[in-house]
User: What shape does this take?
Amino acid sequence: MLFPEGVAIDGVTGSVQPATARYAKRLSELRGLFQDERAQERAIVDRDDPVVYEVIDYRKAESDLCFGTTIMSPGKVGAEYYMTRGHFHQRRDRGEAYYTQSGEGLLLLESRAGESRTVEMRPGVCAFIPPDWAHRSINTGSEKLVFVWFCATDAGHEYGEIRERGMRRLVVERDGRMVVTDNPKFLGDGSKLA
Ligand code: F6R
Ligand code: ZN
Assistant: This one.
């Protein structure tokens, strides 16, 4: 049986107390994600394989609802800011919310039909992610980006499609400013390699 409890979330560090699970993604585990593969290999060595992001869960299998935090380091690979892998949910009828606590970033979304959208991530903004929109968060600032996410426990993650074809847009720094640009390597439906 489940019992109610208060979960303390620190909006600056992203700590979750009590937590049920956590993981970290280092730059070496994100090969293929960034455009500039050589810059990524150099950064893995020069920066001692940094943690790009961490995820901390509060998840009870018997409950319909779960939540947790994502803590993203600031940094870039080439011109691209540090980002998450990005995913659709396995269950196409499950959306999510991302409530930013600290830092600044951009949430990049893509519908199944191929429409791209962005939502600014800054403290106080709760981003609504509709069902069946792929989502990737990007730390465009110079501090940690910390956000709380809430979704259905059975939503699941589907990474394959975004990993194989990428997203339609990239978020890069150009002349000291954040710019959203087309992904030259995007493999759309028609051009998918056999
Ligand atoms: C859960 C969710 C977040 C992300 C996390 C890491 O549905 O959207 O908890 O899982 O921000 O991003 P990914 O999973 O894309 O590496
Ligand atoms: Zn998600």
Notes: The radius of gyration is 17 Å. The mean pLDDT is 96.
